[in-house]
Amino acid sequence: MRLTNADEWGVMSKRAVLEVIALDVEDAVAAQAGGADRLEVITDIAADGLTPPAGTVTAIHAAVDIPMRVMLRLTDGFEAGDLDRLAGLAHELRGAGADQFVLGFLDPHGEVDVYAVERIAAALDGCPWTFHRAIDHAADRDALRKQLDGMPGLDTYLTAGAATGVDDGLPTLLAEAARRGEPGYEQRILVGGGLRLDHLPRLLAAGLDAFHIGGAARPRGWDGPVCPAAVARWREVLDAG
């Protein structure tokens, strides 16, 4: 039986969460076999992840028991009608079995596009969602968090702490972890973006407990599938930490 949203965090509360990017059913099955707790389902990794077809979501939903969060992103920028299209896709994907999502919008000045976020969050009708790594390109991370404070469904920020990845973003991640519980900092931090196994000790010691991998789960690169053994190695290190 697939976990409900409440059960998801209740069951996982005593161990770190491992989220793995899946492009298709093969990836999803391999990620679950390796010990992933959740999937981020996308298409077109060359574009940093776009909304997958509803058929892919339906097939993954039928193939695995772990939760999935589905990307809502059409392009690198907005065009006329994109928000309406995304809202329609959100309804279609919910019908295909998705009940958790990933989204995030900035304006040309690097500030959060509150209108766009509100528009799509409303279409999700309370479904939980992650604000993705757009936060790492924001002009002011703290301002973004405070502007989105209280946004319905927002429970996670996917972030490397810097646009260039965890190597450069580690101080920011540690500082934000220390602010947990403050206004704008209640959401879970999901660390991802150039994340390596050697980063984990400091992150875990700081109380960070959710991690996101893509290429690290694919020893043959993005042209190859998710490898269960690679995922299992991350699971092993997290469980030992």
Tell me the distance between the termini.
28 Å
The percentage of residues in β strands lies in: 5-15%
How are the strands ordered across the major sheet? Answer: 7-6-5-4-3-2-1-8
> Which CATH class applies here?
Alpha Beta
- What is the name of the CATH superfamily? Copper homeostasis (CutC) domain
- Could you give the count of β-strands? 8
Stated plainly, the CATH topology is called TIM Barrel
Low-confidence stretches: 1-12
Order of helices and strands: HEHEHEHEHEHEHEHEH
Average pLDDT reading: 92
**Strand-pairing-aware structural class:** alpha/beta
Into how many domains do the coordinates divide?
A: 1
Helix content: 25-40%
Family: Belongs to the CutC family.
Protein name: Copper homeostasis protein cutC homolog
GO molecular function, one term: copper ion binding
InterPro entries: CutC-like, CutC-like_dom_sf
What does this protein look like?
The protein has 241 residues and is α/β, with parallel strands linked by helices. It has a single domain, classed as Copper homeostasis (CutC) domain (TIM Barrel, Alpha-Beta Barrel). 38% of the residues lie in helices and 14% in strands. It is built from nine helices and eight strands. The chain has an eight-stranded parallel β-sheet with strand order 7-6-5-4-3-2-1-8, covered by helices on one side. The protein is globular and about 45 Å long. 41% of the residues are buried.
